[in-house]
Amino acid sequence: MEKDKSHVLTYSTETLEKLSSMIRDRGHLVERRTNRLYLKQQGIHASVRAHFSPVNGIGNVKSSHERTISYLICNVQYTAFSDERTEGMVEVAVNEFTGLPVDEIRSILSWADSVPVSTAAVERKPTAQICQALVRTSRRSIGRELQQFQESLQRRLRRDIKRVSEYYGSLIHELEDKIRRKGLQGEERATEMQRVEAIQVELRKKLIDKRERYAVKVAVQCLNAMRLYVDVVVVLFEVQRRERTRELVLIWNPIKKGFENLGCDECGNELWSFRMCDEVPHILCEQCSVCPACSKSVCRACHPKQCPKCHKSY
Questions:
Q1: Which partner from 145, 166, 196, 276 sits 20 to 30 angstroms from 109, CA to CA?
Q2: pTM of the predicted structure, to 2 decimals
Q3: Taking Cα atoms as reference points, which of 92, 88, 75, 62 lies closest to residue 29?
């Protein structure tokens, strides 16, 4: 990718939503394949039941087989702009067969030797889904990297808001005290009240300015990517909830020497213990399967804005 190409995005809202346009057919891409690694088949059914736990359903392993799949691993550079500036780089990876983010695969690549390879014919999810997964995992990774940076900005924002609020509050208090002390009525009282309203308007403007000053924007740039071909064990795991069933694809990764986690259908966070909703059915983390207001079971993928039971917004 050209060094002068970057996109400035609002971190608090749609951070990284343009990452897909930055990585498609751009930058440096290398393709490698791991040497043959040991693929665990014996006891794989017991391993599935030990690692994945449907809380409100019944799981059953249908089949398992070896397969070659690919991972897309990207180095993403970010620069955060606010009252201050900071920058860094995160490494993100997506399993192109399942379309799910994979943590730690980059850090453990040194455990496995790999060799250059030309493009192999493997099954992949659509490009849009891969990009969406990269966006989601990049957002989480950059968010973790920027946590201290944002906490520092928030402390300064609270300090400035307190100082401005106290200053303008004292002006308003003086005018209100003047009205009471002098017992102003009629036109004189109206004049002083207009001054109070003008100060309140100015205070609101100052507070908006302060928040904009400390708002964080992030420029992201995909530096390079590697597609890694790996022989894995693919397990088809059927989960039943009442009359509904869903077949989940589980990956036993020989580099990790274990299963890759699933992803919550609502928030995308990693799953191993999960709930199923009664409608689609989605698989959900604990947070996305419960209404925070009434604490009743609800699928926040089916009902993303409002609880259908207590009718309160999340």
A1: 145
A2: 0.76
A3: 75
Backbone torsions φ then ψ of 56, nearest 5 degrees: -120, 30
Q: What are phi and psi of 65, to 5 degrees?
A: -160, 160
Please write the tens of the pLDDT for every residue from 124-162.
Answer: 999 999 988 898 889 889 999 999 999 999 999 999 999
Residue appearing with tokens 């300015």: 209
* Residue 123 within any structural domain of the chain: yes
Rounded CA-CA distance 89/15 in Å is: 15
- Based on the domain organization, do 72 and 166 belong to the same domain? no
DSSP state of 116: E
φ, ψ at 87 (rounded to 5°): -145, 165
Answer whether residue 32 is part of any domain: yes
pLDDT tens profile 224-271: 888 999 999 999 999 999 888 999 999 999 888 889 999 999 988 888
In a domain, 188, yes or no: yes
Token look-up 């071909």 returns 229
Structure tokens at 42: 């014996």
Domain count, the chain: 3
Q: What is the pLDDT of residue 233?
A: 95
* Pairwise CA distance, residues 68 & 82, whole Å: 44
